[in-house]
Design a protein that fits this description.
One of its GO terms (molecular function) is DNA binding. This is DNA-binding response regulator. Keywords: DNA-binding. It comes from Dictyobacter aurantiacus. The chain is an alpha/beta fold. The chain has two domains: 153 residues, Response regulator (Rossmann fold), CATH 3.40.50.2300; 81 residues, Orthogonal Bundle (Arc Repressor Mutant, subunit A), CATH 1.10.10. It is 45% helix and 13% strand. Helix 5 links the parallel strand 7 and strand 8. The radius of gyration is 19 Å and the shape is elongated. The relative contact order is 0.11. About 5% of the residues have low confidence.
Length: 256
């Protein structure tokens, strides 16, 4: 058991909601409230100041951000990426009121732009955020569960209700055996080359032939309604979550 308490920054432009989330954080034994903000600019200034004060940990590794999706005229997903530019060690979790598969794709997307504009941030490599939670499920145990996933285990988190929303849309549809085999290997973190070898897709020299795998992956994205650029690794993260929910492998103890 890890005895280190996780510092948490709460960002919400609605005072009563922000106060509620902060109180839940303070009620846990795993988390500690390190700061809060009611707007995007205040959050940026807060994180910049914390980075300067944390001389031994300027990237804020092991810290977690809980941010509402809607922050007045700002967007929590876009703000999360700005904060990761400043402190790449942060683990950023977005919360909102309603489950949305479209939003899940935005949260985990790596190559992120708004209204078609090019990224001009300091980072050389864009990254997706780390979690998608629902405000209505907020309570101390829920927050501890999320933090354990995204900070200690370095996993991505998506609320089971979001996955259940997807499964309802898929009711009656089934993957083919080949599609399911490919999806299970993706969920285990294998690359397309490794999947080709495992599934017996070989070229004339006995090496991996990834063409059939790419076709299967494309079919899986269509099946699970995952849009985005083909090169975006965030889509693969979402696909792993979707397949594990579809196959009954992802069992969240808080929602059994």
């Amino acid at each position: 058991m890890n005895n280190t308490r996780i510092p948490v920054i709460v960002i919400d432009d609605t005072p009563v909601k922000r106060r509620g989330v902060c109180e839940f954080v303070e009620e846990t034994t795993l988390l500690e409230l390190a700061g809060q903000s009611g707007d995007a600019q205040g959050a940026i200034s807060l994180v910049e100041n914390l980075c300067q004060k944390q001389e031994q940990n300027p990237t804020l590794a092991g810290w977690m951000v809980l941010s509402d999706l809607r922050l007045g005229v700002s967007n929590g997903v876009e703000l999360g990426r700005m904060l990761l530019d400043i402190a790449p060690g942060l683990r950023v979790v977005i919360y909102t009121q309603d489950p949305s598969w479209t939003l899940a794709a935005e949260v985990f997307r790596h190559e992120y732009t708004r209204r078609g504009t090019q990224r001009t941030r300091r980072t050389r490599k864009s990254t997706g955020l780390h979690g998608y939670a629902l405000f209505n499920n907020m309570e101390p145990a829920y927050l501890e569960h999320i933090a354990s996933s995204v900070v200690f285990r370095k996993e991505t988190y998506i609320d089971p209700e979001v996955l259940n929303y997807l499964l309802k849309r898929l009711r009656g549809q089934r993957l083919t055996p080949r599609q399911e085999e490919c999806a299970s290997l993706i969920a285990r973190g294998l690359s397309n080359d490794d999947i080709a070898l495992r599934m017996g897709f070989l070229n004339a020299k006995g090496g991996p032939n990834i063409g059939p795998v790419e076709n299967l992956v494309s079919e899986l994205y269509n099946f699970f309604s995952i849009e985005g650029a083909p090169s975006d690794p965030g889509r693969r993260v979402l696909l792993a979550h979707a397949y594990e929910a579809y196959a009954g492998l992802r069992q969240d103890p808080l929602f059994r």
